[in-house]
Amino acid sequence: MGKQQNYTEAFEELQQIVVEIEEGGITVDELSEKVKRASGLIKICKNKLSATEEDVNAILKELEETGTKAEEGE
Fold first, then answer.
1. For residue 28, what is the enclosing H or E element?
2. DSSP state of 24
3. Contact status, residue 39 vs residue 10, Cβ threshold 8 Å
4. CA angle (20 as vertex; 41, 27 as ends), nearest 5
5. Helix, strand or coil for residue 5?
6. If 7 and its partner were Cys, which of 12, 18, 26, 48 is the partner (CB 3.0–4.6 Å)?
7. 19: closest CA among 4, 34, 40, 39?
8. Which residues, including other chains, have CB under 8 Å from residue 48's CB and lie 6 or more apart?
9. In degrees, to the nearest 5, what angle opens at C-alpha 29 toward C-alphas 24 and 35?
10. Displacement of CA 47 from its chain's centroid (Å)
11. Whole-angstrom Cα distance, residue 5 to residue 20?
12. If you average pLDDT over every residue of the chain, what do you get?
């Protein structure tokens, strides 16, 4: 796999795997592979959500500090 999937691609593939498992039309061997793939997709989604949360928190902290400095200057 060359390029890392983005969150949306990983989430959509994960949803498709869930549908396939729920429909029950897969063999035990396929199920094992689907579960392994789903685990990898969950990691991609979790990592992206964590990174996004860190980014948002950093931006909010920066905005808060900027707002505090502006209030002190008034």
1. helix 28-73
2. T
3. no
4. 105
5. coil
6. 48
7. 34
8. 6, 7, 10
9. 70
10. 6
11. 20
12. 90
